[in-house]
Every structure is written in structure tokens, then in C-alpha cells.
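Researcher: Here's a chain I'd like modeled. Treat it as a single chain, no partners, no ligands.
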Amino acid sequence: MNHRMLFFISLIVIIVGVAGILLQYKPPAEPATEDSVSLPVSVPEKKITFLAQASRELKPYDLLSLSDYKIKEIEVHEDAENNRGFSSEVIADLRGYLILENIAEGGIISPEMAISPRSPEFIQRSLRDDETPYAIKVNVNDEFILTTLKVGQKITLILRAEESNNSRAVANQTAADDGVSTALGNDGVSTAISSAVTQFFTQPLMSSIDVIDIKKYENPSNTTFRNNNIAGEVIVRVDAEQIATLRTVEKSGEILISLTKGSAHLSDKRTQLSDILPSFRTVRELRGKN
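Model: Modeled as a single isolated chain. C-alpha cells:
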């Protein structure tokens, strides 16, 4: 082997050795600085929100009842911009909320689509063009109505009035036994004049009337309160024809409130005291000239 061959072999060995050293070399790690410390990635927290979902098609001027919506619970990011839910305190009872726009069945009722009964503009915005509010007085004996009724409920209005009787009424023997003055009839049977008994009747006026406000008078020990015998008012919304009816009959007697379930059919049946208590049935006494 000549010297030239040995030279090339030595050169190859040197090159391989240098390459191995370079490949195994790692530069020392730089000391960590504040800027180079990796911060943990923050994950937005989630929260529970509640959505009100329409159970039927809703239209403007509708007042929500419990059957009109159902509560849907969903989980959203805390910083979510599109948060259409009510707070848990509010959504617990949306009865009486006024709907402002059309909402399809299954649609979400957002806070922008409804007005709370406690809003100052609630009554004004709940009235259609031909409607007006009407206050029904509630006496102290029916004070429970003021705490039983809720805004948005439907009621039936009934007139209770005294029976008009221009002729003398003759009652049956039961009335005579109660100490009412008696008279001898043509048939020889003793009958009684029932002028001492006040005859009343009730007559349904209108049904499915919406309650838009309830006012309970404060300080029931007040003298004016006791003298007027009024515990508060139930405010309803009625149209032009209904207000005309109420204004016509309101001086004739007392307007009573009956809770309506759904869209009830209004009966035109008139109920008299004698229909309930047969002992108060009377016969009108007719007198003719001889």
C-alpha cells in the first residue's frame, strides 16, 4: 500500500470523527426568564342559563300563563355574548308577562320579547287601540281574591243585583212561620207578604277577561277603608263594547269576579234566590178593580 492510499484513508477517518462530534453536540440550555415562562391557557368558565320556550304560537298583546311556556336549561360560556336567557329568579314565574312580537311554537322567548307586569309601561303597552282599563272594586269579604289572582289570568264577570219588584210578593207558608205578616187568600190558605225579604239575582256579563293589574289598599284599619268596605281593585282590559256594558250595569249592583279556566263559554243563565232556596219563592199579588 502506498503513501497516497494511506493519506486518503486517514482523511476519511478524520472527517467521520469530526462529523460524529458535531452531531452529538448540543448547545447548553439558556436559563429561563420571566418572558419565556409559558402561562397556562385559561379556559372560559361555563354557567347554567335558562330559556323560556313557547308551548304554543304567541302573538303581541298575549299575556303569558304557565301553560304557554316551558323552561329549558342549557350550559353556556360565562362570556358568551348571545345570552338570551332570563335569570333563575325571574324565569321561575313568567305569568303575566306581555308578549311584544310573534313567537312560533317552540321558539325562545327572550327578555327583549316580553315586558314584566312590574314595568311602569306595562299597562299602557298591554292595551290595544280599542281597549281601556277598568277597575273592579273588591270588598273586604272577598279580600282573598287580591292574593289569589295573578296578572295575566282570565276571569268571568258576574252582576249581582237586587230584584226589581213593583208589586207585592206573596210567599209560601214557610215565610209565614218565620214571622212575616200573613194574609188570607181566596182559597182560604194563609199566605205571607215577603216584603221583608230582599230578592237578589246574579247574571253573567262576560268571560275570558284579562287581568292586567291588582291593587291592594294599604292600612285596612283606616276609617275610610272600613266605611267604604273596599279592600282593593282588580284592573282588567276591556274593549269598547264591554266597557259600555260595564258602565251601564255598574250602578245596578255589585260586579263579582269568578276565575275562568281557559276560554270558557259564557252562560246566560240568570240565578235568583228562589232558584237556590225554594222557601223564598213568591207569587206576585195582582189586584183588580171591582
